[in-house]
Amino acid sequence: MLTTSRRQDFFAAQQQHSHMPLQHQHPQQPYQQQVPSQHTHHSQHLHHPQQQQQQQQQPQQQQPQHHFQQFQQDQQQQQQQSQQQQAQQLQLHSEHQSIFFGDSLNLSTASASRIEEIDRLSVFLTTAPTYQLEIAKFLLPTGETISCVLWNELYHITGTDIVRSLVSRFESFGRPVRNIKKFEEGVFSDLRNLKPGADACLEEPKSPFLEMLYRNNCIRTQKKQKVFYWYSVPHDRLFLDAMERDLKREQAGTEPTSQAVAEPALSCTLETLDQVAHCLE
Q1: Would the pTM of this model clear 0.70, i.e. be above it?
Q2: CA–CA gap between residue 257 and residue 28 (Å, rounded)
Q3: Residues pairing with 227 in the sheet
């Protein structure tokens, strides 16, 4: 049996052992070896001060790393959930759009596949910032690319890429652009409504931002220009306004910038354009 003094030594050693970091605890051993002698109890108090400091610092260093890893996992899960919700909403929108075009504009299988191209572009224009990339690129059916660019913690798109996306949408809609210069003039006229500061940043010639955009084929020239905030650009409104201008030109007997060659463009008129606008809402 243990005497009173041996019991005190035993419980004191057990309490000290329980407060040691997990990586310094000894593996489980038979009961007889867990009862420390007075010599071992005394030797535990003779650790070098640097060793004690290292023992205290190691768990403190591990805890922040563990918390950071957990934070990253939580952020990734939230982003995945957000992307799944957006994908579901866009799928419902796409189904509604396809049903509308199929009922109203007599789509063939080929036309339906081109409408799917518009849907894929719409998904990118809606979700590109969620990729959290410095430059997120999207390959258009025309062979050109558009980019979502992160700069100064804000996402941007250039006027050049806006025009590229609209030209691609017109072609997928069955109305390829024939007069690109006149088409661009109309689009850039619409973009004047987006003001520097609120909707865009105004970059001086050959600024670091413009140099980066030029290297990545987002702009054709480094002259002074506006670069638009991603969420400030009304892509659907720009598409409808450009379409309306050409339909009015055709109605007036003047040359449009684009030509209807396939469905649904062949069935689209000024009267049905409102239905297209409702579908894109």
Answers
A1: no
A2: 83
A3: 158, 201
